[in-house]
Design goal:
By secondary structure, the chain is of the alpha+beta class. Helices cover 41% and strands 24% of the residues. The strands form 3 sheets. Strands 2, 3, 5, 6 and 10 form a 5-stranded antiparallel β-sheet that branches. The protein has a 4-stranded mixed β-sheet with strand order 4-9-8-7. The longest helix is centred in the C-terminal third of the chain and has 29 residues, at 182-210.
């Protein structure tokens, strides 16, 4: 889902949990829902956004990837640059691969435009003679941060049951609680995993429609 769509408060998930476990404290429900949402987003890459473009620098200095408030970066899915009015894709290099290749190339960067990440919060692009002063645009997958109180509406509308199963797995797995039930925990874990698999297939189809021809194939950041 690549959009700037409406947000919804995660409290909307709470009432379903309270029906089953009415003695549970609200902070524990909130934690379970948020953990389920984070894992769902990591597994499915469902929450996607095209970020504001940045201007490529004339070196390999790090550029901070700024995500919307209440979110953190899960993964860079696509990086493109404006090549005389045509969007072209940057090739991904893993940092270990990139550092290993440089000595072999006489400290010359690859000829084709590329990007790499030293960490999850920054990105570097090159070579400067192709990219300098050009706009670079990122499509990323997001996840809620640890303080987030909102998610995109479509996660609630289309995958509410999956998120609730993830939360139930967490809660029923807690040791020593009056509601602890490992059989139910395992059941909801399987339902959560099945729901994530379905959402992942759906979001992958949506991503393929966003791609355009003429781009270098990508590799994921790990």
């Amino acid at each position: 889902m690549i959009s700037n769509e409406k947000m919804i408060d995660i409290e909307e998930f709470y009432k379903d949990i309270r029906v089953e476990i009415n003695s549970i404290a609200t902070p524990l429900i909130e934690h379970a829902i948020r953990e389920s949402l984070i894992e769902f987003c990591q597994k499915t890459k469902y929450w996607r956004r095209q970020l504001q473009p940045f201007i490529a620098p004339n070196d390999l200095s790090d550029i901070e990837i700024r995500t919307p408030k209440g979110t953190s970066l899960d993964e860079v899915l696509l990086a493109t640059f404006d090549d005389n009015g045509i969007d072209r894709e940057l090739q991904y290099f893993g940092i270990d691969h990139f550092q290993a290749e440089f000595p072999k190339r006489g400290d010359r960067a690859p000829r084709e435009p590329f990007y790499f990440q030293r960490n999850k919060k920054n990105i570097a692009v090159g070579p400067s003679d192709r990219l300098y002063q050009n706009e670079v645009t990122l499509v990323v997958s997001l996840k809620p941060d640890r303080e987030s109180t909102e998610v995109i509406q479509s996660i609630y509308d289309d995958h509410r049951k999956t998120i609730l199963c993830g939360a139930r797995h967490y809660l029923y797995s807690l040791p020593g609680k009056e509601w602890t039930d490992l059989n139910l925990a395992n059941y909801h874990l399987q339902m959560f995993q099945d729901g994530c698999g379905k959402a992942n297939r759906e979001s992958s189809r949506g991503y393929s429609s966003f791609r355009r021809p003429g781009r270098v194939s990508r590799r994921f950041y790990i």
